[in-house]
Amino acid sequence: MVEMPKTFEPERPEKTPESPTFTGNRGLAIEEPPIFEIGTPETTGVDFEPLSETETRLGGMAREDGIGLPGLSEPQAVRHFVRLSQQNYSIDTGIFPLGSCTMKHNPRLNEKMARLPGFADIHPLQPEKTVQGALAVMEELARWLLELTGMKAVALSPKAGAHGELCGMVAIRAALEARGEASSRRTVLVPDSAHGTNPATAALLGFSVRAVEAQPDGTVSAKNVRAKLGSDVAAMMLTNPNTCGLFEREIVEIAAALHENGSYLYCDGANFNAIAGKVRPGDLGVDAMHINLHKTFSTPHGGGGPGAGPVVLSEALAPFAPLPFLMREGNDLRLVETESDAPDGARPFGRLVAFHGQMGMFVRALAYMMSHGADGIRQASEDAVLNANYIRVQLRDRMSQPFGDRACMHEVLFDDRFLKGTHVSTLDFAKALIDEGFHPMTVYFPLVASGAMLVEPTESESKLSLDQFIGAMNSLAKAAKEGDTERFTDAPRFAPRKRLDETRAARVPILTA
Ligand SMILES: Cc1ncc(COP(=O)(O)O)c(C=O)c1O
Questions:
Q1: Pocket flag, ligand 1, residue 162 (CB < 6 Å)
Q2: Most ligand 1 atoms within 8 A of CB, residue of 197, 242, 409, 456 to mutate
Q3: Cβ-count burial of 328 within 10 angstroms (0-12 exposed, 13-18 middle, 19+ buried)?
Q4: Are the CB atoms for 491 and 499 separated by under 8 Å?
Q5: Whose CA is closest to atom 10 on ligand 1?
Q6: Cα 101 from Cα 458, distance rounded (Å)
Q7: How large is the average pLDDT for residues 357-376?
Q8: Which among 348, 439, 446 has a CA at the least distance from the CA of 402?
Q9: Pocket lining: 268 vs ligand 1, CB cutoff 6 Å
Q10: CB contact at 8 A, 133 and 391
């Protein structure tokens, strides 16, 4: 990286082939140093009135030195963040084909709704009578989620998919405790294609994890599950459609085998966007499932704060749902915050978060549901599957699929066999895609495929953008085969930063100047 001078003084860094211009900028792509290198504590974009005399309650604890945060004037601050944002790639820039992440368009209508002052400016400690509209949004969202999943209860408070897994598995543990079997059932079955959060969740709760191997076709068989069952098994965590983009066809049989064994079926619902409006997990025998609102229901990933990963629960697990509960009493809605206030039969396992969940995400998800309607949600699932299969069919002759040439669900999995003998790796291939102006697909996940490349286009892409992506993938696959390795080994060649040592960046991060 070129070191940027703080001011336009005569001393300039040397021009190098990496940075061929005087400023380090390339065209209108402006270099921007970290804020710590350009800000000074003496500068501020805001003037505060001097504080009127107040009595301090900090005793001797009051800080006397400045905290040294970098300060910028308002125009400097605006430019700093705009320039950084221009170096970024986002769903508003182009196709974001990260498999398993479902980066779909965030409709602007959702944003408009979430910014309405009646939703945006409320506080969780406001008296309930002043937030009846917000509670009604939560009630309506819960109704849609229960209708779409065919389940009995929903906990809205979890803040993400992984948090939802924790919620569902704690509910399972609470149900086992109520049966007096929590200490004997200490094992959770997890397929070897699972997302890392599944075994991590089980381990976090003190369960030991028993792997279930996939069949040669990439799915889990009821026979393999049965072979792993015993009186120690608390539950199985199964993703459906799974992380290879395939529907687990034996899920009903698997659920029945688990239930016969006294165990529960946790479904990782991260891929619900492939089947929403088509299949109800409750009808498949699922006992608990999280729904990542930022995947299936188009809320932004991140979204200016925590996200939302509601968990739906079957009849068997509903009594153990976490507080708070939303109850309707006549025309009024109220939140049950304590176990003593809970209705008969409820045995909440406690609470997961301080308040009620992420209101901003609830509004966005409900806006998506209501603007699409039941038929629109079903069509979104169908289009997501259609788009993934379009990519699969267009690329199948040049790339390789680990489980044979068969229809996929919302994402298509390729492996690295087509790169054999080319000296190009999956990582090189992904980096070369950046030079073509695309965010790469998910790589090296799931682990069951060698050098995996998992592509999820989502329903929001037009045929034109799919064709452009397919064209780039095709051209790269051809170049690799023809020995044009320069396109790969130095990639990305045209990005603001070259290839980073990602391991070092993660292990030895430099977080301040
Ligand atoms: C299959 C699967 N399970 C669980 C998760 C975790 O979800 P979250 O990122 O919302 O915590 C993801 C996230 O990508 C996923 O793809």
A1: yes
A2: 197
A3: exposed
A4: yes
A5: 161
A6: 10
A7: 97
A8: 446
A9: yes
A10: no
Over its C-alpha atoms, the chain yields an Rg (Å, rounded) of: 26
Tokens of 52: 């009127």
The conformational region for residue 483 under phi > 0 = left, psi -120 to 50 = alpha, else beta, is left
- Is any atom of ligand 1 closer than 6 Å to the C-beta of 270? yes
Q: Are 135 and 329 in contact (CB under 8 A)?
A: no
In the structure encoding, which two tokens stand for residue 331, read together?
């025309």
Q: Using alpha carbons, select from 128, 137, 119, 131 the residue that is nearest to residue 336.
A: 128
Contact between residue 182 and residue 173 where contact means Cβ atoms under 8 Å apart: yes
- pTM of the entire structure? 0.91
Terminal alpha carbon distance of the chain = 15
pLDDT digits (tens, 9 = 90+) for 110-158: 999 999 999 999 999 999 999 999 999 999 999 999 999 999 999 999 9
Residue 430 in contact with ligand 1 by CB distance below 6 A: no
Atom of ligand 1 nearest to the CA of 163: 11
For 117, phi then psi, to 5°, come to -55, -35
Once rounded to an integer, what is the mean pLDDT over residues 14-31?
79
Tens-place pLDDT, residues 429-474: 999 999 999 999 999 999 999 999 999 999 999 999 999 999 999 9
Across 67-197, the runs of DSSP E, i.e. the strands, are 153-155, 187-191
- From 40-54, 351-365, 370-384, the region with the lowest mean pLDDT: 40-54
> 181: which 2 tokens?
């079997």
Q: Could you tell me how many residues make up the chain?
A: 513
φ, ψ (nearest 5 deg) of residue 74: -60, -50
- Ligand 1, closest atom to CA 268? 3
